[in-house]
Amino acid sequence: MSELGWGPGVVVLILSWAITLYTLWQMIEMHEMFPGKRFDRYHELGQAAFGENVGLYIMVPLQLLVKISACIVYMVTGGQSLKNVHDLALFRNCLGSLSEEACHGRCFHTFGNKVEENILESLTKPKALAIVANVFVVLHLLGSYQVYAMPVFDMAESVMIKKWHFRPTKVLRYSIRWTFVAATMSIAVALPYFSALLSFFGGFVFAPTTYFIPCIMWLILKKPKRFSASWCTNWSCIIVGIVLMIIAPIGGLAKLIGHIRKCAMANGVQNQDLGEEDQSFGLEDWLPITASRNANWYYSAFHNVAAIVGAGVLALPYAMSELGWGPGVLVLILSWVITLYTLWQMIEMHEMFEGQRFDRYHELGQEAFGKRLGLYIVVPLQLLVEISVCIVYMVTGGKSLKNVHDLAVGDKTCTKIKVEHFILIFASSQFVLSLLKNFNSISGVSLVAAVMSVSYSTIAWVASVEKHATDDVDYGYRKRTTSVPFAFLSALGEMAFAYAGHNVVLEIQATIPSTPENPSKQPMWKGAIVAYIIVAICYFPVALAGFWTFGNKVEENILESLTKPTPLIIVANMFVVVHLLGSYQVYAMPVFDMIESVMIKKWHFSPTRVLRFTIRWSFVAATMGVAVRLPYFSALLSFFGGFVFAPTTYFIPCIMWLILKKPKRFGASWCINWSCIILGMVLMIIAPIGGLVKLIDHLKKGDLRNIKCITT
Question: Class of the 282-470+486-711 domain?
Fold first, then answer.
């Protein structure tokens, strides 16, 4: 009203009430306009009016936008109302500058054009009543959010089950709903601008679905007489609604841009003040990678062990069964040697220029390939590596928990508990661990993870040796769901996945202090050597002993082949779970750092806990959702191992070394690097093919089971 004025404001208010009451009546009338048929959803009525395909394409996007936008606005309003309660109770406004006397000086009166966007922000006295009113708003929105979210859940679940043949389980339901809530929360946190969101969404998506689409459907389905009262009323509503849809979002968008610019300027001043007044609170001191530089060589050792020894070691016997003795041993040794060499290169390049440290993989990539090209090459690959590891760790953690359950109570008991349920259990812990600030704050978790990885690897190979190979063990190639050539290719990806530490090595080295007398590469390399010795102790016995004992009948995860002694195997699986709890964070932390850095530096967000928690919980929810949908261990290893691990681990460090160090042509260094580049590129091309074929086979089998389940 303050933006429209008395005359236009009253006219628009009355017209809106009258038009929306009329279109609401139309919707109710059309619900059962054909005998024996009910249109239970908006898009079904749209399909009856506009046709099956066109109706779907018109109604579903609009309806989804309406409901999603309502949920976002309700998130913002709920948060603002809670803040109002807080501010009124503590006698201060959002800037902390409003005194108690100023709060008490306000009273109920007409505010005119000084009214706030939310009327309850203008009302502060009587204080108790204003607090109660804001609490009532929060309680109302708790229910109203679900009223708008429920049709979105219905639509998403319907598509997932009917079209994509998912099983109608609680896991599916919770994954969809939690992801939606996390997404709307993130947008609300990023754009907490109440009136700007109302005006933009009100014009762009609410005007069509509320003001004129019901009238269009009425004209199509009811076919009123031309120029009759009904015909004229509907066309008047359509014209008003279309004009509203065109002009209202312009004002909303302008207001939204104004808010964002204002916020960006305020954050820019804030960041400048931080830099000028107190360097200890600078951005680099806030980001998780560079927040603390007091690590040492043994931090490097157990961070690297936690990063390298993970889900990949459990799949090595299975990879050996797909490769055979000769190729398997050769690939195992070559992978260890090449990745140790490229790890050394990364450590050397961290401080190759005096006074400059490349604390992140993409910073080194920008130095080698150029600011823009380096970013485009390294960042997508590094993100894919770290996200894929987190997804695989979700799957592995869930499967290990299921192994514990099956060994403890029997795999025929509680058959309704699927691996997806255990993935959700594992994921719940990551929501808590993701609250840890930086790499050094997870050092204790990494140490425990490193100890666990050595422990379960030792149990795996000792139990395999103790079991002994049976007389009928077969070491030849076995036909599985995937043909032998594709299985061979996928095994190369599984081997590559086992060596993943390069993607966080610079980030780990960034936590070590450095001086000209004692550069960080010395303790870092010392820790890396210790880590790689531990890697060899874990990898070679597990791969060789596991394949020797079970031959080509070994399971994708060696611990699934081992069932006795039961208590020891249960302990081994629990060690895997504990290890992955820490290793997930080792890989997630650079992702958090990258996203938080972009949000603060480029988009001028304030470096707050709200921002940090929103980013991290959204990431955990996303990786959990993918893991629940694709719980196929070896297929994920082989596809990701070839497609994203081979570049970042096997040959990109060599390319950067050639560009930055410029070794003599045809010299030893030049030849070694080019050999690694060629091997890595071949691996990147052929390994994902096997992984993709295996993944498709798994999905086909899964879809058949889902269809059978739905039919039953």
Answer: mainly alpha
